[in-house]
Description:
Order of helices and strands: EEEEEEEEEHEE
Number of helices: 1
Structural class: mainly beta
Largest sheet: 7 strands, mixed
Shape: globular
Number of strands: 11
Strand content: over 45%
Amino acid sequence: HVQLVESGGGSVQVGGSLRLSCSASGYSRYCLGWFRQAPGKEREGVAVIDSDGSTSYADSVKGRFTISLDAAANTLYLQMDSLTPEDTAMYYCGLDHSGSVYCSGGWSWHEPGNRGRGTQVTVS
């Protein structure tokens, strides 16, 4: 049974940084990622990491956000730097099996099969 629990959100000034964490359990042969959704906007895939460590990022966050995985601790991270008001959203951790649409290139537009409850990030 997959469980995902996000933490680390909060309010930050423009140009500041936050690190989100996602405690993940109950998975194997996976990819893990972050997506976000702001009020009135479509869901946006932010970043994804495969089980082999390969990463991909949305153009909107490339160079500012870093996704990483501590497999021993079963924890996914999203380091967010140079934050702007456009980054304000609810951030969700997602996980899906390696053969899924999400993990086969669809992470930027397809919702993962499993997701957490989210953590709010507000930049002002």
